[in-house]
Amino acid sequence: MNFRLVIFFSFMTFGLHAQKSPKLELYDFSDFDDIVAIDSLASSEVALPDIKAKFWEHTVYNPYKSVDVTFPVKLTFDDTTYASPIGKEKVITSRYGWRWGRAHKGIDIDLITGDSLFAMFDGVIRFARYNSGHGRTVIVRHYNGLETVYAHLSRYGVKENDTVIKGQYLGKGGASGNARGSHLHLVVNYKGVSINPEYLFDFNNEDNRVRAEEIWVTKEWTRPYAHNSRRQSKIQPILTEAEALKTLVKERRVYVVKRGDTLSRISRRNNVSVASLCKTNSINRNSVIKIGQRLIIEN
What we know:
Layout: E1 35-39, E2 45-49, E3 73-76, E4 92-94, E5 97-99, E6 102-104, E7 107-110, E8 116-118, E9 123-131, E10 135-141, E11 146-156, E12 163-164, E13 169-173, E14 183-190, E15 193-195, H1 197-200, E16 214-217, H2 241-246, E17 252-256, H3 263-269, H4 274-281, E18 294-298
Antiparallel strand pairs: 1-2, 3-16, 4-7, 5-6, 7-14, 8-13, 9-10, 9-12, 10-11, 11-13, 11-14, 14-15, 17-18
């Protein structure tokens, strides 16, 4: 069942109006059972889902491992902007994509150790502790089903279960964990699945624009191997259900193996997994492919 936030505005008796709070229009809340009423900072009563009702784990980076997420998924934002996670110009040094033979599931934003970090939207702190390669990490769960991850911090400014508002201080940036120099590693997850942050948000200007208030996320934007961390992928937001459903229609084409090709290289160039490539062609990961061999690509 889908829920939508309903904002009620109260007016003060002296003719002063309460300030309008940022609100998120919810789309997919199958995992959240209850709706609770909270008081906003502007003294307006806001009906919000209890985002702590399920999968609320403080010691686990991804509590959704048992959840099978089906794409495409529609995400809804009721705000046309986000709060910049850093208080300076956003310089992306590494993008979402394949990097050094492994998946880079977020973007790296340059900073100096000690620079302040901020929440992109309203939410609740689910995770604020050390996490292997990410070092000191803060995860904010938001009211539209997303979680934003802020990694490699040098200092925490929040604790778990804290409620935060858009633009609120989270901590100091740094280089903790497996970081090559000071930077913010920013990840956007939906039920544990990473989404290319640049598909949802424009980081190239000072307006901090959300690309669309209603946007469909397809599998293409959740597969790091289909992108290159050295350059920005061509972004064409999918805005309608019809467009999104078209991505589910699999197309088959023939690929002729060239000199130097490997299954891994072919899969990356054609935006298809090695597992899918093997299944479609009845081969396995260790199969020897030859120059001139024809493979069926299905995506």
